[in-house]
Amino acid sequence: MKILAINSSPRIGDQSKTELMLDHLVKGMQGAGAEVEVVNLRDKKIKNCIGCFTCWTKTPGKCVHKDDMTRELFPKWLEADLAVYATPLYIHSMNAAMAAFRERIIPVLQPFFEKDAEGKTYHPLRHKAPRAVWLSVCGFPDESEFHPLSDFLNRTHPRGAIAVEIYRTAAEAMTRPFLAEKVRDILDATEQAGRELVESMRVSPETMARITQPLVDTESFGRMGNLFWKACIAEGVTPKKFQKEQMVPRPDSLEEFMWVFPFGLNTEAAGDRKVNLQINFSGKVQDSCHFTVGAGGVEAKQGACANPDITIDTPFDLWMDIMTRKADGRQMFMEQKYTVAGDLPLMIQLFQQKE
User: Fold this and answer.
1) Helix or strand or coil: residue 342?
2) pLDDT digits (tens, 9 = 90+) for 309-340
3) Phi, psi (deg, nearest 5) at residue 23
4) What is the pLDDT averaged over residues 332-355?
5) Sorting pLDDT into bands at 50, 70 and 90, what band is 148?
6) How far is Cα 142 from Cα 217, in angstroms, rounded to an integer?
7) For residues 87 and 42, is the Cβ–Cβ distance under 8 A?
8) If we measure between CA atoms, which residue out of 249, 299, 303 comes closest to residue 270?
9) How far, in Å, CA of 21 to CA of 31, rounded?
């Protein structure tokens, strides 16, 4: 099977969740024996369709433009058995690069009018077109974000032309360390989908359920997202720089701290026991909270704990500086800017990132 995979994401590397998903889909396809070529539209020059209909009249099947689409991509598209269209979701649809590519395949059509079995008018094909797989990701957590795109695709593709649609919500959260286990399952399932497509031109409901499984609940997603954007605005950085420099959202209240702090704790350090971590704040926020850490997760509560294993006394702003890597925690401890009572080695283990 010959497959042409078209990636319209302008991002590269781990910045592009479209590319991340596509890479795993392609890996599965290649593992099943397919010949797959990936084309990144960001590297190509594709002019917009100008609606001249030269490709229907003066030069049937050939576009008037002389660019990468005419010389390279359209011939490859015609030769493919399957075309994978991978696009980030922009305003509930494909992005402009993918829209330009799709508009430029109009030479495959003839200008004449025919009716299908349901009485709908359509243009007949000039050549056999490859079947389609659509893959898209979006930042929002709601599946309904893809409904307009799906509706548009199914209205504009001939009946049966779309083999499968793969949509991944909350994609920007896929790089968060605390979601690593779920993300691995999603990517493994995406590879499995690639194998299934080559073998049967379909994706099983079980595999699709793994691909589309929820990453976070909508409330947590919204709170984390708002913290993230507030941090980007406060620091004057783009999301790309925020991620590259491994920046951390900065809480500005006890409530925000209690919600975000558990995401950075290494729960495996607790082993089979329950560890009580008490933090007493001074300065901007004069309050306390404690965290019960175990294999099952972290429970946060305001106020003091009866029997803490570890107690940290610190100015609030200093601890936020340490959290966001603006201050070195070890150095601040050596300078007695904050104090720790109890099991110091255990505290260090709790604060270590899991591999």
Assistant:
1) strand
2) 999 999 999 999 999 889 999 999 999 999 99
3) -55, -40
4) 89
5) very high
6) 10
7) no
8) 299
9) 16
- pLDDT tier, 178 (very low <50, low <70, confident <90, very high otherwise): confident
Q: Going by C-beta distance under 8 Å and a sequence separation of 6 or more, which residues neighbour residue 313?
A: 280, 282, 338, 339, 341
Q: How far apart are CA 237 and CA 246, in angstroms?
A: 12
pLDDT digits (tens, 9 = 90+) for 48-64: 999 999 999 999 999 99
Residue 355, pLDDT > 50, answer no
Owner of token pair 């980030």 = 88
Burial class (CB in 10 A: 0-12, 13-18, 19+), 134: buried
| Of residues 150, 57, 148, 152, the one with CA closest to residue 106 | 57
Quote the strand ranges of the chain, DSSP E: 2-7, 35-40, 82-88, 114-115, 121-122, 131-137, 162-168, 275-282, 288-294, 297-302, 310-315, 339-342
pTM of the model: 0.84
pLDDT value, residue 216: 85
For the residues 1-20, what does the mean pLDDT come to? 95
Between the CA of residue 119 and those of 111, 122, 126, 220, 252, what are the distances in Å?
18, 9, 20, 48, 61
C-alpha–C-alpha distance, residues 92 and 194, integer Å: 25
Alpha helices in 80-173 (DSSP H): 96-103, 147-156
What's the chain's length in residues?
A: 355
Q: Give burial (CB, 10 Å; 0-12/13-18/19+) of 101.
A: buried
**Residues 41, 73: Cα–Cα separation, whole Å:** 10
Pairing type for strands 131-137 and 162-168 reads parallel
